[in-house]
Amino acid sequence: MSKRVQVGIIGAGPAGLLLGQLLHKAGIETAILERRSRDYVLGRIRAGVLEQGAVGLLEKAGCGGRLHSEGLVHDGVNLAFDGELHRIDLKDLTGGDSVTVYGQTEVTHDLMDARAQTGAETVYEAENVRPHAFDGESPYLTYDKDGQSHRIDCDFIAGCDGYHGVSRQCAPPDLLQVYERIYPFGWLGLLADVPPANDELVYANSARGFALCSMRSLERSRYYIQCDLSDRVEAWSDEAFWDELRRRLPEDLADSVTTGPSIEKSIAPLRSFVAEPLRFGRLFLCGDAAHIVPPTGAKGLNLAASDVHYLHEALVAYYGDGTQAGLDSYSAAALARVWKAERFSWWFTTMMHLFPDDGPFGQKIQEAELDYLVGSRAASTSLAENYVGLPY
Length: 392
Ligand code: RFL
Ligand code: PHB
Description:
It is built from 13 helices and 21 strands. Strands 7-6-15-16-17-14-18-21 form an eight-stranded mixed β-sheet, sandwiched between helices. The protein has a six-stranded mixed β-sheet with strand order 9-3-2-13-20-19, covered by helices on one side. It has a four-stranded mixed β-sheet with strand order 1-12-11-10, with no helix packed on it. The model has no long low-confidence stretch (mean pLDDT 97). The chain has helices at residues 14-25, 38-43, 52-60, 65-70, 90-94, 104-118, 167-170, 238-247, 251-256, 300-321, 325-352, 359-375, 377-388; strands spanning 2-4, 7-10, 30-33, 49-50, 72-74, 76-81, 84-89, 99-101, 121-123, 127-132, 140-145, 148-153, 156-159, 177-192, 202-204, 211-215, 221-227, 262-276, 279-280, 283-285, 291-292. By secondary structure, it is of the alpha/beta class. It is globular, with a radius of gyration of 21 Å. The chain has two domains: 2-73 and 98-179 and 271-348, 3-Layer(bba) Sandwich (FAD/NAD(P)-binding domain), CATH 3.50.50; 184-270 and 354-388, D-Amino Acid Oxidase, subunit A, domain 2 (D-Amino Acid Oxidase, Chain A, domain 2, 2-Layer Sandwich). It starts with a strand and ends with a helix. The structure holds 8-demethyl-8-dimethylamino-flavin-adenine-dinucleotide and P-hydroxybenzoic acid. Residues 10-16, 33-36, 41, 46-48, 104, 126, 129, 160-166, 268, 287-288, 295, 298-301, 304 line the site of 8-demethyl-8-dimethylamino-flavin-adenine-dinucleotide (RFL). 8-demethyl-8-dimethylamino-flavin-adenine-dinucleotide (RFL) binds at residues 10-16, 33-36, 41, 46-48, 104, 126, 129, 160-166, 268, 287-288, 295, 298-301, 304.
């Protein structure tokens, strides 16, 4: 079976769904092909912090309602080290900016609901999705569903299919340049229906390793601790997690941690990764399909949003008056912002984690850097403006 849309989108994560919704608002027809089921996509517990730019895009996509009524606006973020908590006043240091705590699960839910109302095509459990002929004028997508083969012809293909997706793999290898750093540890995350230990996020550096106190709401907390890459999630009981978390936090904060049974527990490896360029003829890469950041600083989802910003503007301009300029500059414009977020995430990760090979000297240097950071308005401002998100 075959049909035609203007833009074929691979992947129904935040990037694909947001792009689909923004294009729909501009009257551009899309189809989204997603390998997994809707429930599987919604079951992934990932990011929790939205920059103002991402919030603005979600509003533009018609998904601002629940985000504003349930999202928590945070004007500050905290660093813990050497037994103390230090607040970075995001709002004061950036001249009024803040971040919104609203889970990726909720963002995805809102985008899926909004798309369902438009009647635009979304195919879940699409197997063997492949982009074709994107080096010419008439690209198309193929996939299998319920034992039948399908074809979708389109003008452009957006590869929003995440790090393990097919789009980047289909880019001509001789044109693709890859930059990568793997970190020698992971994050063990735990979600629980308990009130957060602190009313704002806390990133903690300790001699036992990194810890993060985050949240999804005033009743639901998300915590992370740095773990070994060889750790298995089954080997971590809830009790062992809570004990280790508290050991890594300043005493007062540790005393404020309310424990409870986990709803979810998982280990994520940490990686920095960028593939360049983001355009191959009529195929455009967006979000995790092209780049990964370690989660320290919460930039992954926000970068997916900024890519979508550049790409949807370029497509809207193209369908408006035929101009190609935005499409031509998409890769460079998006990558300029991506690399700054890569730098920030790498720096924040390096400063906050225990690097097994760096020893006591490494720990002392980190403490000096943290001390400088919280003592210098210039250094605090640099952290704050990156944390709230650099302008698009
Ligand atoms: P996603 O969310 O990975 O969505 C891609 C979608 O494409 C589908 N897909 C395919 N569909 C069709 N055919 C194929 N061949 C396909 N291959 C894949 C996938 O099923 C999926 O639904 O990418 P997107 O949209 O670019 O969004 C990016 C964000 O999801 C990502 O940057 C963040 O979640 C990163 N991230 C985190 N970011 C933060 O800011 N804070 C965090 O705490 C945080 N935790 C995480 C994370 C990413 C993780 N991953 C990817 C393993 C924790 C984890 C475990
Ligand atoms: C989260 O709440 O999942 C979260 C928050 C901040 C980060 C990473 C993850 O830097």
